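[Meeting: bench + compute handoff]

Bench side (C.D.) handed over the final construct sequence. Compute side (W.E.) agreed to return the predicted structure before the next meeting so the bench team could plan truncations. Sequence as handed over:
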Amino acid sequence: MKFKFDAVFYYVSDLDRAVRFYRDVLGFKLHSQDYVARFYVDDVLFELVPTSDSGKLLGNGNARLCLRVDDLQASISELRVKGVAIQDGETKENGILSCFRDPDGNEVCLWQYIR
C-alpha cells in the first residue's frame, strides 16, 4: 500500500468567518470555495470544512497546522498587530515554535528552524 498526501483540513463553525481569518489575517490565497474553502500553502492543500448540520464541532483540536517562517519574532509581531493572541516563541531542539488558535479553536503553529 502506498499513501499520497491529499489535504489538511479543519472543521469550522462559520465558514465565512474562517475564510476571512485565513485569507485576511494569515494572508492565505483562497483557491476556491463551494461547500468547503480551499487554500494552497506551498503545494499543500488546506481546506476549511463546515461542521455537521447539528452544529457540533467535529474536529476541534485533533490536528494542528504548522507553518514554517524565516523570522518567527517578526511573524509574531505582525499577527499581534492583527489581534491574534499568539504565544511567545519557545525554543525547541532544532527550532523555535509559537502557536495560536483560529476562531474555532483549531491550533495553528509557526516554526522557525535554527540553523
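W.E. noted at the follow-up: The chain has one domain: 8-113. C.D. will use this when planning the next construct.
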